[in-house]
Amino acid sequence: MHQKLPKEIDPFRLAQNGLTLEGQLPIAEMVRLSKSLQSDEGWVNVRLGFDVDEVGTPYMRGEFNTSVSVICERCMNSMILEMTVDCLLAMVSSERKVEGLAEQYDPWIIENNDPVLLSAVIEDELILSLPLVPRHTEACLPEEAWSVGDEQVELKDSDKAASPFAVLSALKIKQ
Ligand SMILES: [Zn+2]
Predict the structure, then answer these.
(1) Ligand 1 centroid to residue 129 C-alpha, Å
(2) Cα(137) to centroid of ligand 1, in Å?
(3) Domain locations along the chain
(4) Interhelix angle for 143-162 vs 164-174, to 10°?
């Protein structure tokens, strides 16, 4: 069973009331995120704590985790990426107020009183956390397929370092 979250929220009111929302969101609802994924199947587990801090700043602490399917840029096969995202967002009503925020916060600018689409906030945070170049953590190609490339690069580097002229001129400078 998936626990439903409200589609739209009033973040300021949630913060004033110190409420916590917990539930799951389908990845399929996050169209922008899905574009970077191989499949839009799956769910995001969401926990959002709203409160007001001691200096009166309303904030939201978000914890999301999910597994998404992306393409490994090394072997071009699909891979499962486990994502855990923590964020701490301070709600401000205008860009001008961002400067006054304590530094532990990322700003969340909410410029009018319209309800906020909850999935969009979570989607933004997940997109920010996606690796630029997703890759398997293990060696996903046969060793010879990628050690050739690496060796060539290494050879060039060591050539430079081992050049007798380079060593000689370094010695000269020292003296
Ligand atoms: Zn791979």
Answers:
(1) 19
(2) 8
(3) 8-129, 143-174
(4) 40
Whose tokens are 């001129």? That residue is: 169
Q: Name beta bridge partners: 61.
A: 49, 88
Residue listed under structure tokens 């020292």: 174
Q: How many angstroms is it from 139 CA to the middle of ligand 1?
A: 7
- 66, 42 contact by CB (below 8 A): yes
- 115-162 pLDDT tens trace: 999 999 999 999 999 999 999 988 898 766 655 555 444 444 444 444
Q: Is 25 exposed, middle or buried (0-12, 13-18, 19+ CB in 10 A)?
A: buried
**From residue 102, how far is each of 50, 91, 99, 105, 122 by CA, in Å?**
17, 12, 8, 6, 22
pLDDT tens digits for range 18-71: 999 999 999 999 999 999 999 999 999 999 999 999 999 999 999 999 999 999
Angle, CA of 115, 118 and 119, to the nearest 5°: 140
- CA 72 to ligand 1 centroid distance, Å: 4
Evaluate if pTM is beyond 0.90: no
Token digits of residue 64: 């999301």
What pLDDT is attached to residue 154?
45
